[in-house]
């Protein structure tokens, strides 16, 4: 699995915000984006407290996958 880029995380955050604005539930969004529903709730709270600029970047830079490569 390739390492995710930080802008990919921001894109997921933005998608979650659009879906919340459309009235979707945190549980549905989490399932759709393959995330934990607590993540969606925390993003929403952060957005409410800090607005778009503060919440869009939380310092997440992605990371190295901990999954072993096939055949190793």
Task: Tell me the layout of helices and strands.
Elements: H1 6-21, H2 26-33, H3 37-56
Helix pairs in contact: 1-2, 1-3, 2-3
Report what the structure shows.
Helices cover 61% and strands 0% of the residues. The chain has 72 residues and is mainly α. The mean pLDDT is 76. It has helices at 6-21, 26-33, 37-56. It has a domain at 25-57.
Provide key terms for this protein.
72 residues, globular, 61% helix, mainly alpha, 3 helices, single chain
State the gist of this model.
The protein has 72 residues and is mainly α. The chain is built from three helices and no strands.
The main β sheet shows up as: none
Q: What letter string, H or E per element, gives the SSE order?
A: HHH
Can you tell me the residue ranges where pLDDT is under 50 for at least 5 consecutive residues? none
How much of the polypeptide forms β-strand, as a percent range?
Answer: under 5%
